[in-house]
Amino acid sequence: MFNLDVLNAYLVHKATAARKLSHRIFRRDLAKQFVQFIPFCQEIRPAACSGQSFLFRLMALHFPRFILSKPEAKKQNPQRMCVVCSEPNKWTYTRFQCPSCDVGLHVDPCFEIYHTMKDFKRTHKSKHAQKE
């Protein structure tokens, strides 16, 4: 049934759109648009959320974790650089991380920004500018 709906949508697109797409490209673009609106996906779990695999970062379930010190570690209170609010000349450190993405993040607001916005650096800068 779904395939018939997609085919009908393609035929409407083909009849009305100025830019003609092949059926295969139309289905691929449609699938990309559907994936953008899925609230979460637990099936795909890459080792880390790299910049190229932003779909996992935006859709999977993530939970902040306190960074625990290892018994042999030199630091008693380990920290990581926050990937959202750190800049090249200004680093900020946090005691929290996302273990799924393997990145350091402040719990508020950086954790939410990182996992809900595709361009998290620009979003953080614009929210920070609004506060000033």
Characterize the structure shown.
There is one protein chain. The protein is mainly alpha-helical. It has two domains: 1-37; 43-131, no CATH class. It has five helices and five strands; from the N terminus they run H-H-H-E-E-E-E-E-H-H. A hairpin with a 4-residue loop joins strand 4 and strand 5 (103-104). Helix 4 (110-116) crosses helix 5. It is elongated and about 65 Å long. The termini are far apart. The model is unreliable at 40-48 (pLDDT under 50).
- The number of distinct helices, counting runs of at least 4 residues, comes to 5
Distance between the termini: 53 Å
Q: What percentage of amino acids are in beta strands? A: 5-15%
Structural class: mainly alpha
Rounded mean pLDDT score: 79
Helix content: 40-55%
* Total domains: 2
Main beta-sheet strand count, sense and barrel state: 3 strands, antiparallel
**What shape does the CA trace take?**
elongated
What are the low-pLDDT stretches, counting only 5+ consecutive residues below 50? 40-48
Q: Calculate Rg over CA atoms.
A: 20 Å
Q: Strands of the largest sheet, in order across it?
A: 1-4-5
Number of strands: 5
Order of helices and strands: HHHEEEEEHH
Organism: Plakobranchus ocellatus
Protein name: PiggyBac transposable element-derived protein 4
InterPro entries: PGBD4_Znf_C
Domain PiggyBac transposable element-derived protein 4 C-terminal zinc-finger: 75-115
